[in-house]
Design a protein that fits this description.
Largest sheet: 6 strands, mixed
Number of helices: 4
Distance between the termini: 27 Å
Bound molecules: inosinic acid, magnesium ion
Shape: globular
Helix content: 10-25%
Order of helices and strands: EHEHEEEHEEEEH
Radius of gyration: 16 Å
């Protein structure tokens, strides 16, 4: 149970049991809404891989998955500029598409991604996010399915990283300040 990253965590926000409950709830909602359909789940790498893996196993309907890698100009106000590093392999025209996110913070990247995917004429396009951080929002975007809400703190685990680390933590936690100051 103990792992060597635990010592860097100040507090746990969602433990494994709570995360399991959230994913079950999200999976249930989406399975109900998409009954008889075959949605394409789109995950933006890398943070969303853990969420996607658990989310899809909580769906009781047919679905397909695909991945994208995008880069955005973080920290600037130049909304709407993302570069596609790796595009989808799937043609989404006439498909029911669900973007699966780890967390929505500023929403800037997601907003641009939605605009981009809309141009490809999907039948429907919705957003499912494990966590929402409304205090960080700089763009008018909201998710259709939200697992949980967090405050204005930097969190790690369950796919979320700090300098590429802690993605493999099975829970969501707040990093100790000492971790930032040492880096
Ligand atoms: P934004 O909504 O465009 O600001 O970016 C969201 C992305 O930033 C997420 O998909 C995460 O990869 C990352 N992110 C946002 N908040 C956090 C956090 O608290 N911890 C770790 N990564 C975060
Ligand atoms: Mg990240």
């Amino acid at each position: 149970m103990k792992n060597e990253m635990d010592q860097d965590i100040q507090k746990i926000l969602y433990n494994e049991r709570e995360i399991k409950g959230i994913m079950k709830k999200l999976g249930g909602e989406v399975s109900r809404d998409y009954a008889g359909k075959n949605p394409l789940l789109v995950a933006v790498l890398k943070g969303s891989v853990v969420v996607l893996a658990d989310f899809m196993r909580n769906l009781s309907i047919n679905c397909e998955i695909d991945f994208m890698i995008v880069s955005s100009y973080a920290g600037t106000k130049s909304k709407g500029s993302i570069t596609i590093i790796q595009d989808l392999r799937t043609d989404i025209c006439d498909r029911d598409v669900i973007i699966v996110e780890d967390i929505i913070d500023s929403g800037i990247t997601l907003n641009s991604l939605v605009e981009l995917l809309k141009q490809r004429n999907p039948r429907s396009l919705k957003i499912c996010t494990f966590l929402d951080k409304p205090s960080g929002r700089q763009s008018e975007i909201s998710a259709d399915y939200v697992g949980g809400t967090v405050g204005n703190e930097f969190i790690v685990g369950y796919g979320l990283d700090y300098n590429e680390k802690y993605r493999n933590l099975p829970y969501i936690g707040v990093l100790k300040e000492s971790v930032y100051s040492h880096n």
